[in-house]
Amino acid sequence: MLAVKIEITKGSLKEASHVLRAIPRAMPRVMRRAINRTVDSAGTDLKRRVGKEITAKKSEIAKGISKRKASLSRLLGTIRARFYRPGLLGFAGTKQTKRGVTYRISRRGGRKRIEHGFITRMQTGHRGVFVRKGAERLPIAEARGPSIWQVITDTAGLLKNVTDTAGDKLGKHINDQIGVELRRWRA
Prior knowledge:
- This protein is α+β, with helices and mostly antiparallel strands.
- It folds into two domains: 2-84 and 148-186, no CATH class; 88-142, no CATH class.
- It is 43% helix and 18% strand.
- The chain has five helices and nine strands.
- The protein has helices at 10-19, 26-53, 58-63, 148-154, 158-186; strands at residues 2-3, 65-68, 78-81, 95-97, 100-103, 112-115, 118-121, 127-132, 140-142.
- The radius of gyration is 23 Å and the shape is elongated.
- The two termini are 45 Å apart.
């Protein structure tokens, strides 16, 4: 499991709480909303950056990334990348040919072929790219691409860029939410 961690300095927290000292329970509300907006935008940014590296569909990338939002009792938001490996049919350009199945995983790499691979629909309704494990008709195994976690960790600078962007956005979101609380209180 891969998690992104963004920290807030004590100085910025003191400054924010000083501005909101007259409004009861405003600081936890401001922090919760700012953290949740940052988690949403960082999750979107992470999915977009992974999508620039591999040809997987956005829905397949989203299955490998989960978010947990902050609450008033738990002022912590997380984004996690799981070891979810999308099936080859979840990658753009996967197609059946006479000699097998061709696919392209990396946007920078070329097409590859699985000799004697085939695309079929299982009895459960699941479609995928399958290969036989031996000379017999059964058993068969589904061919899958790299995990979303692996793409994130193998791509140089991807996680650092997402973390830096999220840190910048968190400060902006805190300032925005302080303004929201002050406008609500004055109204």
